[in-house]
Amino acid sequence: MTTIIAFILMFGLLVFIHEWGHMIFAKRAGMLVREFAIGFGPKVLSFTRNETLYTIRLIPAGGYVRVAGEDPEIIELKPGHHIGLEFNQAGKVDKIIVNNKSKHPNARVIEVERVDLDHQLIIEGYEIDEESELLRFDVDEKAFFIMDEKETQIAPYNRQFASKTPGQRAMQLFAGPMMNFILAIVIFIILGLIQGVPVDEARMGKILPNTPAEEAGLQPNDEVIQIEEQSISTWEEFTSVVRDNPGQEIDLMIVRDGQEEAITLIPNEKESVDQKGESITIGQIGVYQATEKSVLGTLKNGFIQTYDITKLVLTNLMMLITGQVSIDMLSGPVGIYDATDQVVQTGFMNLLLWTAMLSVNLGIVNLVPLPALDGGRLLFVAIEAIRGKPVPPEKEGVFHFVGFALLMLLMIVVTWNDIQRLFL
């Protein structure tokens, strides 16, 4: 149960912050945000605020922000339709009743002759059962359609996604992944404030019991300055030598309380997996890196950690694209849940670290120029900026539809691999 709650909260936070970025920048650009949803499928909870419907849906497999103009409008009025009109105090149409007009006795029923709810915001038509001239009604820019007793706000062209500049649209699409990177930075800063920031030098932190480090007599704050006649100045250099010498005796020169001292130890052998997915044996001695607390160092470390993880994810992604890493190495929701279960057992701080790493992954994956992802849509905005006119909507729609189908197929394959790994 702890793992389930942790997974839901973690996944919900990642999705929420991503979609919140999309929504905030859409509203800043003047777009009408119709819905902000966490999850897919049937609604579990919903409320409306500031023109936007906020929903939590049954299937926790992502989320979305629905902006006017990104998809074809559900309601379209055509000549010959009979509709009811209700008016506000300014005399403008504020409700357009599409059906069930009998439930609105005060509505003025007309037969539509011409409608322009994009630019002119007018409705022209004739009153029913009367010999009347053509009537023209001005429509309020925040008027509502009422269909099956459900209200949907109209979207004038200046409130639609396509009406905005390429820069505004690109920013709205990029904002989701950007917020994932910002979330990772914030989490790393919080971890730094609580736990401290790793030091650059090869200085010992916590020594684990019953490990080669303890048996050799290493103590917290010991600093390694030399290994086998090789000068050591950073923690990365130190751990690299240890990893490369499993089961091999290595001689260390350390500094303890200002005095140099020689220590010999033999790293344990541990099975691991390299970036190509191949099994390897590495050395471990059972020691944590020393940390220190400083505000400036903590802020700097938040950006450095996010950058390092971004670089690692991009490297692995390129290896996947070039075939150096098998698709079997990918994990979907099932694999992430299993990994989360293992992380939860190691403590809350490691769960925060895992959340930051997943946030970076989510940001990068969404920026990959694949159909139906933010990166794929950014690609079309870039093409429009270069050629000076947009790609025809029907062609872009086919591209995203086919791409989405392929992504779903990939998700099925990855999930199947995750399930198989659980039972191997």
TrEMBL record:
Alphabetized UniProt keyword annotations: Hydrolase, Membrane, Metal-binding, Metalloprotease, Protease, Transmembrane, Transmembrane helix, Zinc
Domain PDZ: 184-258
TM ranges: 173-194, 351-370, 397-416
Cofactor: Zn(2+)
One Gene Ontology MF term: metal ion binding
Highest taxon above the source species: Bacteria
A Pfam family annotated for this UniProt entry: Peptidase_M50
Primary localisation category: membrane
Subcellular location: Membrane
Family per record: Belongs to the peptidase M50B family.
UniProt name for this protein: Zinc metalloprotease
Source organism (scientific name): Oceanobacillus arenosus
